[in-house]
């Protein structure tokens, strides 16, 4: 499984904090043109995702709360779990053919910021749901 995890440089002061989630240099030529950014929330104990993409790459960053990101490589069944959020501020790059789901493990709503390598197209969603 060829995921990548980028440790975020959190800059804090009396006003709050700022971090660069994804920069142009984080994208490769293989990632293609600009896709889309979306935000998703999950209530405590809820899981989102439970799918994989055949050609799309996604980058996940939990910007509020905490979650466990589960990744399973569809080719060799390799499994990885990563804690992401307030306790581990990272951006995780999820390549095609890696099943992924994120569970809110905190006591408050979790906010997930995601970038996907191509915009959603309902006529060609490239999203394959599976319960694993």
TrEMBL record:
Taking every annotated instance into account, which residue ranges of this chain make up the domain Capsular polysaccharide assembling protein CapF C-terminal? 12-128
Domain of life, source organism: Bacteria
Residues of the site described as Participates in a stacking interaction with the thymidine ring of dTDP-4-oxo-6-deoxyglucose: 120
Q: Which InterPro entries match?
A: CapF_C, RmlC-like, RmlC-like_jellyroll, RmlC_Cupin_sf
Q: Which residues form a coiled coil?
A: none
Q: Name one GO cellular component term.
A: cytosol
Q: Which Pfam families match?
A: Polysacc_synt_C
Q: Which GO terms describe its biological process?
A: polysaccharide biosynthetic process
Write one Gene Ontology MF term: dTDP-4-dehydrorhamnose 3,5-epimerase activity
Name-wise, this protein is Capsular polysaccharide assembling protein CapF C-terminal domain-containing protein
**Organism in which the protein naturally occurs:** Candidatus Daviesbacteria bacterium RIFCSPHIGHO2_12_FULL_37_11
